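Amino acids appear as letters; backbone shape is given numerically. Here is one record.
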Amino acid sequence: MAKGGLLTRCASKGAQVNHLPGFNGSFPSKHYSGYVTIDPDHEKRLFYYFVTSEGDPSKDPVVLWLNGGPGCSSFDGFVYEHGPFKFEAAKNQNGLPQLHLNPYSWSKVSNIIYLDSPAGVGFSYSKNSSDYRTGDIKTAHDSYTFLLKWFELYPEFLPNPFFIAGESFAGIYVPTLAFQVANGIVAGVKPVLNLKGYIIGNGVTDEEFDGNALVPFAHGMGLISNDLFEEAERECKGNYYKPPSSTCRSKIVKVNQVLSGLNIYNILEPCYHGSSTWTDTANNDRLPASFRQLGATEQPLPARKRMFGRAWPLGAPVRDGPVPTWPQLLNSNSVPCFNDEVATTWLNDKEVRKAIHAEAQSVAGDWELCTGRLVYNHDAGSMIKYHKNLTARGYRALIFSGDHDMRVPYTGSEAWTRSMGYKIVDEWRSWTFNEQVAGYIQGYEYNLTFLTIKGAGHTVPEYKPREALHFYSRFLRGKQI
């Protein structure tokens, strides 16, 4: 019997997680994990880890969490961002990371499902390799199939308010999936999900808005000179994503050269190029304390490899050829700025896999934060039409953005939310946490909210866990942030 008298049928089927290697103590709520088979013929199975709320699981919202990529595991969110534990690196070479309770876990106020999607990501897999060739529409369909089957396994959560959340390339996953769920509700598909809204952080949305956001962001952050910005503005006329002329292209190449070497996921953080990076840069005691804290995450681990592949600015200047197109960026290699060893070590340990009911490496393969085995087709186009459809139906939407992320800059998210043409009902203002300005917010009609988080990078809950839990919990409950 779980907290609040909630009985989960799947516990008797072996889904409950009773212990985790590296953690000593009792879980503050019930945990379940395992597979949902979405295509028996292909043995196509999606892996989930479900954390029930530490509040009242029978009434608190159920939130599906999706990381980006495409091709990145949602254990990224679990390990490094808002999961129930903080991970401490192993103290010796052959040891496992140590787990401690996370006081800012999103399970404090919600039930949360971490899903590895699509098949081929994280622990999810298919016995038919053709399933690793996928795209936006197929991924949304498969995730919807997962949800229908998952709620059949956990029917006691059907009455709970349901939200879909994610970050980065989940800016595509979330609205396409929410659209499928909303259409299923209208069509009377059983079980009927109690969808209330969705949440997207630093999310990819529209190739033109996102692609044209970087140059204004870099100028606003003082990363490129006024002269270079004015030259680019004059030659490109705001069209930085698809340079209209060779002269414009030369200015974009120059911007790229200036920005080369920055950590695009948080411009205040150093790039990780090896252990010496953190010894020489992050822990340089000769720097003033205020400088050492710039861009620091409140989690106990150094930053690590991120989702969503490479972007321009690239690690080396683009000297010849076209600026990479958006689809090309989706299937390219990761930026070498981060270290994901803690998650990789823990999730590839045999005892950890056994504890969370994940298949052995011989079946599901090595766990990787972001896999390279997908061939992914961005086939849904701009997400703006999805947002208009969903908000017009009454679903609440929170679009949040760490304001020091250069991967998906807030300037693009601010621009596309404004482009929806909705009336402003909560004019641009600061929002506060602990009597301090934590960011800025603008509210639109149809329950669309755009919010920035001051000083946060691409993965907001990692950098600002207190503030993230604050706006997350208030949004879920329909309260003003």
